[in-house]
């Protein structure tokens, strides 16, 4: 879905397979990252709600290969897993990382999960199955310098 306001053009990210708005869809707290090796590739993460009346949120994401003109919304990282506070980053070779706060529906525990994509945000693999402790609001940065610390990430 595309919206125009003067010279500004907005492209909707959470869209269906035909790039149309998903009726009743609800999402917020988006974070976007750009591949430093190819500016046409971006990924975006957000809190995905089941519908506009729900408080249950999951880890939604989308990706683009044409600098944001069109977006693909594959779904959520894991179905029916409570997630919040998504952040994304990319490293110096164009891999994307998605950090998310995970809990259960009762919010009886909190942990941070780190995910990595090696294909432009199309699929994600969990990197931290040990369930690192975490809390509100986690952040992520990656050292892209070409020195001894290259590729290090900090949560």
Keywords, separated by commas or semicolons:
155 residues; mainly beta; 5-stranded antiparallel sheet; 4-stranded antiparallel sheet
Task: Explain the overall architecture.
The structure is a single chain. It is built from no helices and 13 strands. Strands 7, 8, 9, 10 and 11 form a 5-stranded antiparallel β-sheet that branches. Strands 3-4-5-6 form a 4-stranded antiparallel β-sheet, with no helix packed on it. It has strands at residues 2-5, 8-11, 26-34, 42-49, 57-64, 72-76, 82-90, 96-103, 111-117, 125-126, 132-133, 141-142, 153-154. The chain has 155 residues and is mostly beta strands. The radius of gyration is 16 Å and the shape is flat. 0% of the residues lie in helices and 45% in strands. The relative contact order is 0.16.
- Radius of gyration (CA) equals 16 Å
Mean pLDDT: 86
Please describe the biggest sheet, giving its number of strands, its sense, and whether it closes into a barrel.
5 strands, antiparallel
Helices and strands, in order, run as: EEEEEEEEEEEEE
Terminal Cα span: 34 Å
Large-scale geometry? flat
Helix content: under 10%
- DSSP strand tally: 13
Q: Approximately how much beta-strand content do the residues carry?
A: over 45%
Secondary-structure-based class equals: mainly beta
Summarize the entry for a quick read.
By secondary structure, the chain is mostly beta strands.
């Amino acid at each position: 879905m595309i919206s125009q306001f003067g010279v500004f053009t907005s492209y909707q990210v959470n869209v269906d397979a035909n790039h149309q708005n998903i009726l009743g869809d609800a999402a917020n707290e988006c974070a976007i990252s750009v591949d430093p090796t190819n500016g046409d590739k971006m990924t975006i993460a957000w809190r995905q709600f089941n519908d506009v009346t729900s408080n249950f949120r999951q880890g939604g994401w989308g990706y683009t290969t044409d600098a944001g003109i069109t977006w693909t919304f594959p779904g959520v990282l894991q179905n029916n897993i409570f997630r919040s506070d998504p952040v994304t980053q990319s490293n110096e070779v164009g891999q994307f990382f998605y950090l998310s706060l995970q809990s259960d529906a009762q919010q009886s525990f909190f942990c941070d999960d780190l995910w990595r994509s090696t294909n432009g945000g199309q699929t994600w693999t969990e990197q931290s199955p040990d369930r690192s402790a975490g809390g509100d609001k986690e952040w992520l940065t990656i050292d892209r310098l070409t020195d001894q610390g290259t590729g290090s990430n900090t949560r």
